[in-house]
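Continuing the series of single-chain predictions for the mutant panel. This is the parent chain; the variants come on the following pages.
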Amino acid sequence: MGRWRPPAEQSTALITRAGHDRLKAELDDLWRVQRPEVVRALAAAAAEGDRSENAEYTYRKKQLAGIDRRVRYLSKRLPLLHVVESRPSHPDRVFFGAQVTLERGDSGEEVRYRIVGPDETDAALGHISIDSPLARALLNKRVDDEFDATLPGGVVHFAIVEIEYDA
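Parent structure:
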């Protein structure tokens, strides 16, 4: 089997101001703090002699490669991102940046999600990517609209209870 992989789908280049600031801070921390520390530790491990049996040297090389990979990705991705700071012209509908409260049709449970860019998703906080199936099904809907979303567990029926945007 070869190493060829099909090209990844293009992700939406939208991001919130907070998400953009977080990514810039991560890039700055990686480049100015973490990378120099790892380079120093790598140099110290290399100075210990035989590198073929030096676990610290191998670990630091892999750590440095991971940092460099993330720095390269962020350096290419940040200039492509478009920061969305304004409220939509129709705040009664679901668009990027909306915080949406939904009621599941099968259990009646209320869940709350915020639609964000693919670079700032966080399931623990309820931040879902605008490219996700649920967010795609939500777009342009209003309060009291009902819809079905095809999720990994199957088709789920939802009703929109509330739509909010940050001020």
